[in-house]
Design a protein that fits this description.
376 residues, Rossmann fold, alpha/beta, single chain, N-(1-d-carboxylethyl)-l-norvaline Dehydrogenase, domain 2, 2 domains
């Protein structure tokens, strides 16, 4: 079955149903105003899961692999091992392999403290192993590739994974923008290769995009969507391959406009961040752009679009400011140098704030999650 973009009615309905489910976690929500832990959210989540028949789509944890142990690869490995998978992590860098258990240990212990993990962290870590040999992936039912964004390098890694695993094993590429169809070219079994786009921190966020390439078998995409329930995600199925998928296309359109405003002297970096934080930042966890327009009055947006859209940046070049910042060696808080300047202590403090906020915004999102047939 290889007509990847022609969905049968039954399969399409199953994918839509799977896509619409809210995959929630059993952890306590926190009242952000008072700091009070609201344990009742756990019961609400269990009720929501029961009403939406999660048992029909729950997959059992299969042995899983992660290739590439940078920031994203580490948090993906953490997510998978916390979900009950036996995880084999591959990286050619010996220092990354040696430090992985220590790094994952810190993350799973934090998950335990934040009520996102019920298991004993020490027991979880027993299911994590590392290797520089792709052959160690031989028993994996799913492998996630998470190396840097380079088409040829990713293709090379995907071929090594294919040589190691069975023909039935699923292979996901954690790419942010590369077309999945291009990653499938030359593969032995292109139908089992998908895009699996994670957000950072992957072990906390509910975000996940599952992207079908031209050769992807829809049944494999649906299986990954079901696996996402184990990972406590609320996944989105991207049914046709498009560069950047959903969130990156929207985010980079916003970032392009932000650079345009800074480079043309309309606002500073600080001004842009402040405005976006205090406008879009307050509603976007509750409502996406279409729901927000529903809530705030559709006709006004149609009127603004007529005048504003022709005036927005349509540049196809990487912004000069971005080129300069990258050329300076800035990597952000990881080396305390970015669009803002940090002391090492300030950079660490921002990283901690980001992680703490990720847990708290997850809890807040679950508190306001849409529930079928809920009373006003």
């Amino acid at each position: 079955m290889s007509i990847r973009r022609s969905w049968s009615a039954d399969s399409y309905s199953a994918a839509v149903e799977c896509n619409s489910r809210l995959f929630v976690s059993g952890h306590a929500a926190q009242n952000l105003a008072t700091g009070e832990v609201v344990h009742g959210i756990i019961a609400e989540e269990k009720e929501l899961m029961a009403r939406r028949s999660f048992t029909r789509t729950t997959e059992q944890p299969v042995p899983a692999g992660v290739v590439g142990l940078g920031l994203m690869g580490t948090s993906i490995a953490t997510c998978l091992v916390a979900a009950g998978h036996r995880v084999v992590a591959i990286d050619k860098d010996a220092s990354r392999r040696r430090s992985l258990k220590r790094r994952v240990s810190l993350l799973v212990r934090d998950m335990r403290r934040k009520k996102l993990l019920a298991k004993d962290p020490a027991g979880v870590l027993k299911h994590l192993s590392t290797s520089d040999d792709f052959g160690a992936l031989r028993d994996c039912g799913i492998v996630i590739e998470s190396i840097f964004e380079n088409l040829n390098e990713k293709r090379n890694v995907l071929r090594k994974i294919e040589d190691a695993v069975s023909a039935e094993a699923l292979i996901g590429s954690n790419t942010s923008a590369l077309p999945v169809t291009e990653l499938q070219r030359g593969a032995q079994h292109p139908e089992r290769i998908l895009g699996v786009h994670w957000g950072e921190p992957a072990h906390v966020l509910r975000f996940l995009e599952v992207i079908c390439g031209a050769e992807t078998d829809q049944r494999n995409a649906e299986k990954v969507m079901r696996l996402a329930s184990l990972w406590k995600k609320e996944p989105t199925l991207v049914r046709r391959d498009v560069r950047g998928f959903i969130t990156n296309r929207i985010m980079y359109a916003m970032i392009r406009e932000a650079f345009y405003l800074v480079e043309n002297g309309y606002a500073t970096v600080e001004d842009i961040d402040r405005s976006v934080r205090n406008d879009m930042g307050y509603w976007i966890t509750l409502a996406g752009p279409f729901r927000y327009m529903d809530l705030t009055g559709i006709p006004a947006y149609g009127a603004v679009m007529r005048d504003l859209l022709p005036d927005l940046s349509r540049s196809q070049e990487t912004p000069k400011l971005m080129q300069e910042v990258v050329a300076s060696g800035a990597r952000g808080t990881s080396n305390a140098k970015g669009f803002y300047q940090y002391t090492p202590a300030e950079a660490k403090r921002w990283e901690k704030r980001f992680l703490d906020f990720s847990y708290e915004i997850r809890a807040l999102a679950l508190k306001y999650a849409e529930r079928p047939n809920a009373e006003v």
